[in-house]
Amino acid sequence: MTYLVYDATFEGLLSAIFEIYDRKIEQAFICKPEFETPDLFSSKIQVFQNEEKSDRVWKKIILIIGSDKAKNIWKVWLSELPDIENLIFRVIKYILASQADVLSDFTNADILKLQQTLKMIGREKHRMEAFVRFELTKDAIYYATIEPDFNVLPLIIKHFESRYADQKWLIYDTKRDYGIYYDLNSTEFVDFPEEKDALKPDSLDEKENNYQVLWQDYFSSTNIKARKNTKLHLRHIPKRYWKYLTEKK
Hints:
Strand 5, helix 6 (about 155-165) and strand 6 form a beta-alpha-beta unit. The chain has two domains: about 1-125, no CATH class; about 130-249, no CATH class. The protein has a five-stranded mixed β-sheet with strand order 4-5-6-7-8, with helices on one face. A three-stranded parallel β-sheet has the order 2-1-3. The mean pLDDT is about 90. The protein is built from eight helices and eight strands, in the order E-H-E-E-H-H-H-H-E-E-H-E-E-E-H-H. The chain starts with a strand and ends in a 13-residue tail after the last helix. The longest helix has 23 residues, at about 110-130. The chain is of the alpha/beta class. Helix 4 packs across helix 5 and helix 5 (about 110-130) packs parallel to helix 6. The chain is elongated and about 65 Å long.
């Protein structure tokens, strides 16, 4: 077995797949550095992202299945599930061998797993778009923290750019220590490890607490106790998201 340890970037993964084909490696296992577990009978190749190599693999995939479906492979990589790299490699290998769009071939276990993961990613993206609650800071920036199961920040940019185009905002993923910041013109990725925890009260705008109380009152007043359905409520808003919802404080 040959272990290809890549740099945890999607371009690095594509570069590793290029190396497998270029070196004609028959038994390959792709992993991030933290999951590296080679034994005495295995060899290791350290792979870093290479734009030329990753582009060649990516353009070949797009040529066969189209850009929209190729993008779904990238979305699945964002799941960060264990061994997702090798699932993607097997799917790409199947695509290249078939020279056809095989992403609807649910008789193939890897294709089925890929599509199931894609649905999970879609659900998490939708939840983040629905459950983000901004707080206004003294710097006139609307700030929100999230901790999604999957790395969906890159997938929710378009939604928030269109919905909150007239205000500055920052959404920070405390689980992965990075965020997306919109400055009224464009959105960029930011990295502020010190912002892991939720905002401290003294960094909020003085009117923010009043806004939160108003929202909580509205939420309570519109609640119809006679129609309470806890089971249904938990299905639509799982408890793991409650700590970021103003109405649940």
